[in-house]
């Protein structure tokens, strides 16, 4: 369902109205929110009163999710050897 929502958003952005109603900053903000939603629903983020900290992905998880689901902070938190072996 989330994927359908994201695809619908992308279609709207590429349409006549979406092209005129959103700029690059809007699209970047939406993309950031989509990353959060995807990570939250996949269980990689936990809600806490202090902060929202992403979990460090494993190689198996990286292979089953889209690269855009991960922030650079999440990926850089992986041990270098694990990240290299995953490629």
Automatic annotation (TrEMBL):
Q: Does the keyword Signal apply?
A: yes
Keywords for the protein's UniProt record, in alphabetical order? Glycoprotein, Signal
Q: Give TM segment ranges.
A: none
Please, one GO biological process term? cell-matrix adhesion
What are its GO cellular component terms? cell surface
Q: Which InterPro entries does the record match to this protein? A: Stereocilin-rel (IPR026664)
Presence of keyword Lipid biosynthesis? no
Listed name of the protein: Si:ch211-150j10.4
């Amino acid at each position: 369902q989330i994927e359908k929502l994201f695809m619908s958003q992308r279609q709207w952005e590429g349409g006549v109205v979406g092209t005129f109603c959103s700029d690059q900053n809007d699209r970047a903000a939406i993309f950031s929110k989509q990353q959060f939603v995807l990570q939250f629903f996949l269980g990689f983020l936990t809600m806490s009163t202090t902060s929202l900290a992403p979990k460090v992905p494993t190689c198996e998880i990286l292979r089953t999710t889209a690269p855009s689901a991960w922030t650079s902070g999440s990926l850089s938190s992986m041990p270098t050897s694990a990240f290299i072996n995953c490629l």
